[in-house]
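dude i think i finally got it to work??
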Amino acid sequence: MPEPFELARDEKGQYVLKRPGQDDVTDVRVRRSFPWSNPRQFISIRNSEGKELLLIENLDDLPPDTRRAVEEAIADASFIPTIRRIDDIDIRFGHQEWKVQTDRGPAEFRVQEREDIRFLGDGRFSVKDADGNVYELPRLDQLDDYSRRKLEVLL
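look at this
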């Protein structure tokens, strides 16, 4: 069993980590660790500077109220639009300008490096833009022909 803790929101809406015998830590971040293919394992709670304070090995080991609070914090922090269609990828000056349709609406973003497009084990890809936002790209066989042709230049 993990060490006992509580995750709550303060009056400002920030998450607070409370542990017996220790000072409360305000404005903590809850993040999934890689691989993202195991979403219930290895959840990190970090202070505002990014230092890990607590690692949850498995969400299912937590009491129900604590588990719900952690899942809520993850949902608040996880905004990963899924790319449904690629309208254009313009390669110039060493970076790529993407115009896409996502499950959250149209988006335009810049990808700095080819390494910012990562293959995931199940055939999907993650795409990180120049601002650090992450998009999910489905398996190639789930994209339309036009989108696949646009990606051929990059993959």
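The chain has two helices and twelve strands.
im so relieved honestly
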